[in-house]
Q: What sequence folds into this?
């Protein structure tokens, strides 16, 4: 018996959406990537809305106790730490730790991403690039147009 029912088929693959660009290519570092080095200061890294890919290397020399490096979101009233490294006690001056982290941050209107280092013995090297707008529209690497 035949039926007069139409059954829709929905293809949710990346090929069906019209793009065959893998996520790792869309989030590639490009010439629009910004870089900051932060040591013994507070620096505003980003104050634009959207989704941002952040990569950081932080080197801590343990000559002093109570040193820290922080990445935080500041909305003008409150700061929310999203990453931190802390050394609570001094050890030998030649003891050094380096750590690397990569993450995505979402900033709303009025938000800013800040890096805080409270010592010359905490050095943060930070790269960041926008990967999507505040509405989730992907931002491709500068000059890249998918086929």
A:
């Amino acid at each position: 018996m035949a039926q007069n029912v139409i059954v829709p088929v929905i293809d949710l693959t990346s090929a069906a959406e019209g793009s065959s660009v893998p996520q790792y290519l869309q989030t590639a570092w490009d010439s629009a990537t910004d870089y900051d080095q932060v040591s013994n200061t507070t620096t505003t890294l980003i104050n634009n809305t959207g989704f941002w890919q952040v990569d950081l290397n932080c080197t801590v020399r343990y000559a002093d106790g109570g040193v820290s490096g922080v990445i935080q979101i500041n909305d003008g009233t409150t700061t929310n730490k999203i990453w931190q490294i802390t050394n609570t006690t001094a050890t030998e001056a030649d003891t050094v730790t380096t750590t690397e982290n990569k993450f995505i941050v979402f900033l709303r209107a009025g938000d800013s991403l800040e890096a805080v280092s409270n010592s010359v013995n905490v050095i943060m090297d930070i790269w960041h690039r926008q990967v999507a707008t505040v509405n989730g529209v992907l931002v491709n690497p500068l000059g890249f147009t998918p086929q």
Remarks:
- Residues 50 and 102 are 17 Å apart (CA to CA).
- Strands lie at 34-39, 42-46, 50-61, 67-74, 79-87, 96-107, 112-117, 122-132.
- Residues 34-132 form a domain with the Jelly Rolls fold (CATH 2.60.120.1010).
